[in-house]
Amino acid sequence: MANNIEVKDLLEAGVHFGHLTRKWNPNMAPYIYMERNGIHVINLYKTAAKIEEANEALQKIAASGRKILFVATKKQAKDIVAEKAGAVNMPYITERWPGGMLTNFVTIRKAVKKMAAIDRMKKDGTFDTLSKKEKLQIDRLRAKLEKNLGSIQDMTRLPGALFIVDTMREHIAVKEAQKLNIPIFAMVDTNSDPREVDYVIPSNDDASKSIEKVLSHVTAAVAEGLSERKADKDAEKAGKESEGDADTPAKAEKEAKAVKSEDNE
After folding, report:
1. What is the pLDDT of residues 10-61, one digit of tens each?
2. Do residues 81 and 165 make contact, with C-beta atoms less than 8 angstroms apart?
C-alpha cells in the first residue's frame, strides 16, 4: 500500500486508548498490549497490521466498482465520516440507522425515489400549484428523508461492504450485514466483540482524533481503488478506440475493392 501506517502517528492520535478494564470483552485479549491505571492499552503494532489488511481488501472492493457504506451515528464520529466518505464518493449513515436498511433495501429505495419525485415536482412547477399547507408538509417530508437517507440516494444496490465505527452502538447494522453476508470492516474498541467483524481494526472508537486517523488511512485506500478502476476503464476505452482506428484502413480497402468489382460488372 502506498499509504504506510506509522505506529507513531497512531500513538499521537490516541488510537491505543481502550476502555476501563472492568468493561472489557475477553475476546479482545489478543489485541491488548497492557493495562495502565485501570485502562486497557491496545497494541498499536497489531492495529497497524490490521489497518493494512483492511485497506488491501477495501481497495479491491472499490476497484471492482462496488460501494462501501460507512456507518457512524455517534456525535464525535458523524462529521468525520461524512467528510471522509463524501470525499471518496461513498455512501454513509450518520443519523439513526434506518431499520431494514439492508434487509429491506427495496423499501429504502422507495423512500429515496420519493425524495427524487419531490425534487422533480419542484423543477417542473407542480410544487407551485399546491396549497401553502401541502407545500409545508412536502418540505418537511423532504427534509426528513434528506437527513436520514441523503447520502445513500445514489446507492442503487446493496453495498459491497460496511465500514462501522463502534459495533456495539451500530449492532443493528452489524446484524443486517451478517444476515446478508456483507463483509464488515470496523473500528473495534476493547469493550466490543471482534468475532462479529470480518476485518477488525482494534482501536479507540470514542476519540475524534483516533477516528479521523483511522478513517484517513481507510479512505486513502478506497481512493486508490477508485483510481485503479478509472485507469482500467481509460485503458479499455483507449484500446477500443485504437482497434477502431486500425479497422479503418482495412475497411476502406474492402469498400474500394467492392466498388471496383461493381465497375467491372
Report:
1. 999 999 999 999 999 999 999 999 999 999 999 999 999 999 999 999 999 9
2. yes
